[in-house]
Specification:
Oligomer: single chain
Mean pLDDT: 89
Number of helices: 6
CATH class of the largest domain: Alpha Beta
Order of helices and strands: HEEEHEHHHEEH
Largest sheet: 4 strands, mixed
Number of domains: 2
CATH superfamily of the largest domain: Glutaredoxin
CATH architecture of the largest domain: 3-Layer(aba) Sandwich
Number of strands: 6
Structural class: alpha+beta
């Protein structure tokens, strides 16, 4: 009987060691997976704004790197908004400062469904009503789970190095310097030709 008890104790200890090793293995695998996910997420983050890919209204890739050396004013635009009249001010600001500033309109339908049109409809609206000649991107999400990488960069301090923000409504503006660094952002009520913006250009 004593011999059987000893054998049982030995077997139990072995099982305990196996169980401990199993849990250690699971722990290591879980942490390795988390680390890989974090590394993958970090690798997918843009090092600067010029790394970000976005298309224009025609579906063609825009090379933001070509704009290095100029300031860029990004504006999430909409055709049926109370601030749509700001297209006029944006075009004026662009024409007056084209040698040192590019304005990029970014259509989004996330605020009151005020940009429901197709790419061709948006392009036609901008040209016919306001004579827009500055670049317009494809329609994207500027907030939420499907937020475009461009707006992740503009709104997250860990990416832009300056400050975090959230896009509150159409025609919010983000100004970037000649090296792709965020300078500041302005809510919809700040007009494109306001002193706040002009003094930073």
């Amino acid at each position: 009987m004593s011999k059987i008890n000893r054998c049982l104790r030995v077997a139990i200890r072995k099982l305990q060691r196996i169980q401990t090793s199993y849990f250690l293995l699971i722990f290591v695998l879980m942490n390795t997976n988390t680390s890989c996910q974090n590394n993958s997420a970090a690798e997918n983050q843009p090092k600067n704004i010029y790394d970000i890919q976005i298309n224009n209204l025609n579906g063609e890739k825009m090379d933001l790197g070509e704009l290095k050396g100029k300031k860029i004013l990004f504006v999430n635009v909409a055709s049926k908004c109370g601030f749509t009249y700001q297209y006029e001010g944006l075009q004026k600001l662009y024409e007056e400062n084209e040698d040192k500033l590019t304005i990029i309109g970014v259509p989004s339908n996330q605020f009151g469904g005020q940009e429901p049109g197709s790419s061709s409809e948006i392009a036609s609206f901008c040209k016919l009503n306001y004579g827009v000649t500055f670049p317009i991107t494809e329609k994207i999400d500027v907030k939420g789970k499907n937020q475009h990488l461009l707006y992740k960069f503009l709104t997250k301090k860990e990416l832009n190095g300056l400050k975090s923000s959230s896009v509150k409504w159409n025609f919010q503006k983000y100004l970037v310097d000649e090296e792709g660094n965020l300078i500041d952002f302005f809510y919809s009520i700040t007009k494109p030709t306001s002193k706040k913006i002009r003094q930073l250009i």
